[in-house]
Amino acid sequence: RKVVPVAESLPAEPAKPKAKPKEARPRPATADDVLKVLQKSQLLAPEQFRNAQHLATDAKIFAKRLVQAKLITEWQMDQLLGGRTSFLLDQYKLLQVIRAAPTGVVLLAENRDKRFAIKILSRKLSQSKTAYDHLLTRSGTLAGLDHPNIIRIDDTGESNGRYHVVMEYFD
Fold first, then answer.
1. What pLDDT, on the 0 to 100 scale, is given for residue 118?
2. Cα 20 to chain center, whole Å?
3. Contact in structure between 158 and 164 (CB atoms under 8 Å)
4. 98 CA to centre of own chain
5. Hey, what long-range contacts does 32-41 have (CB within 8 A, 24 or more apart)?
6. Cα dist. 91→22, 87, 145, 159 in Å?
7. Alpha-carbon Rg of the chain, whole angstroms?
8. Tens-digit pLDDT profile for the chain (171 aa)?
9. Measured between alpha carbons, how far is residue 32 from residues 59, 65, 122 in Å?
10. At a CB cut-off of 8 Å and minimum separation 6, what does 114 contact?
């Protein structure tokens, strides 16, 4: 199948004043800190979390053991060790980055054991009404098409001030 980029040709926006930088998330330093971040993230079901607790020794070793046990992905490990606790976008669990570009990022996600690609527009483009309208127009056009060479659009939405498009995913 041919991949059709959804938002790669969005119009450029005029330069705006830079936003205030975000505060850095505290990085977990110990295995207990990683356990707290992991529990808050809800990446694991409660039983998986209880079973994973015995793996906790050192923060980095613990995170690597979670990856080896296939409980989390390497990207999720890096994000957890960076203090991130949010891995859900609506009903989709974020698994890893597929591609990053100036217009945004494409992430691999899953919902009910089905995988999706989610294009999340950059903060800059998400502030643009023109870019949002363009995204909805293109997504609506593609959603109405059914062809083996065109990726199917499943959903569009907004979360935390950033717009996204959910598409079918092919390995």
1. 95
2. 23
3. yes
4. 9
5. 32/56, 33/59, 34/59, 34/62, 34/63, 34/80, 34/81, 35/62, 37/80, 37/83, 37/84, 37/85, 38/66, 38/72, 38/80, 40/85, 41/80, 41/84, 41/85, 41/86, 41/87
6. 25, 10, 24, 11
7. 18
8. 444 444 443 334 434 445 555 667 788 888 888 888 899 998 999 998 888 888 877 888 888 989 999 999 999 999 999 999 889 998 999 999 999 998 899 999 999 889 999 999 888 888 887 877 877 787 777 777 778 888 888 888 888 888 898 999 987
9. 8, 14, 33
10. none
Q: Which amino acid is at 32?
A: D
Euclidean distance between CA atoms 103 and 6, whole angstroms: 10
Pair 131, 13: CB distance under 8 Å: yes
**CB-based burial of residue 39 (10 Å sphere; 0-12 exposed, 13-18 middle, 19+ buried)?**
middle
